[in-house]
Amino acid sequence: MEDLEKRKQDNFKNWTSGNKDIDEFIQQSQINAVYYLRYLEWIPFENFKNVTYITRGGFGKIYSADWPEGYIQYWNIENQKWKRNSMKVALKSLDNSSCISTELLNEIKTHLQIYIWYVIQCYGITQDPNTKDYMMVLEYCKYGNLRNYYLNNESNYRLKIRNLIRIISGLLDIHNAGKVHKDFHSGNILYSGSFPYISDLGMCQPANKSAKQEGIYGVLPYMAPEVLRGYQYTKASDIYSFGIIMNECISEETPYNNIPHDYALAIEICKGLRPNIFKYTPKLFADLIAKCLDVKAENRPTAKELCQKLCELFYYNYDDDDINSQINEYDDKVSRLLNFKNLPEPVNSDVTKTTLHSECFDCQLDELDLNEINQDEEKNNYE
């Protein structure tokens, strides 16, 4: 073990990013790594092949690339070299990050601080030779986001519960690390194979960081009412977002898909508007969604409670005929036989059309709006 640690440190002189802060950051990760997936590398851009633009995110661009050398798995004692695994990766750039930004390093630090199984893996850092922007090297998820997945893959009630367990387990890992995600929506749930992973930890911050927000960043339909009103983003705000994701997953419909996502929608959400729960959703599950979407943050379940409840729903023996009937009816409705005629010739979809971009909203509600919302809340409390 001592030889391996010495080998790591002796190798520091064989590479440099050209940036002292990045070099020290990567070196420290290698020294501290007790598991290969915690081991970050500086990866020269020329090591990637077939770099292809995918889409634009809130703060930068996403590319796919082949990495023939691949990530480190273990030290091969017999051959005296690292055993690596060739793979396809995603390259995530941040705009104007040529002078390395704290946002990029903070996002990578968050990856290292969180239990890894349900969160997208980060392998290291590279730099675009043309723009000089630094880029994170991430696990590539070929099946796209949650919305892409349910549009292109059939799954029943049980499979959806299984995937939601993985998603809430990832959120629980984030919360257990003392952080909140802050930008939790279906566009940040990515599928590798048949399993979902949480991505985009760029907005993650300590859960105890308090301040009233001047600007609100996110995807409006997934944002909790207290966040829209400019108050502190909390773990309960993440839970509200998860409730919207649960309903989207079970209904296979985007939230508020027939309403403009604007200031008027923000007002209505604060007044109690919520996406319709799919009429064939089993009652136990519908009740869980409703609890997550409660206007009062303190009434929402925690990530741990949700994880336990979803596990109960997944492993439930379904001796109750009424519950069985609800599940069977749901599966029948979402997997009904479709018989379409005269459809156009199939073409490849434009991935950007199903990509959600987080935006900065100026949703500071004026005094009249706040008074009206407060009156509605007082009325509801009285009733």
Radius of gyration: 23 Å
- Report the sheet with the most strands, covering strand number, pairing sense and barrel closure: 6 strands, mixed
Examine the coordinates and then state which fold CATH places here, giving the name of the CATH topology of the largest domain. Transferase(Phosphotransferase), domain 1
The beta-strand count equals: 12
By CATH, the architecture of the largest domain is named Orthogonal Bundle
- The strand order across the widest sheet is 1-5-6-4-3-2
Assign the CATH class of the largest domain.
Mainly Alpha
Overall average pLDDT: 80
The poorly predicted ranges are 337-341, 349-354
Q: Number of domains in the coordinates?
A: 2
Strand content: 15-25%
Distance between the termini: 66 Å
Oligomerization state: single chain
What is the string of SSEs from the N terminus onward?
HHEEEEHEEHHEEEEEHHHHHHEH
Task: Give a nutshell description of this structure.
This protein is α+β, with helices and mostly antiparallel strands. The protein has two domains: 1-139, Phosphorylase Kinase, domain 1 (2-Layer Sandwich), CATH 3.30.200; 144-338, Transferase(Phosphotransferase), domain 1.
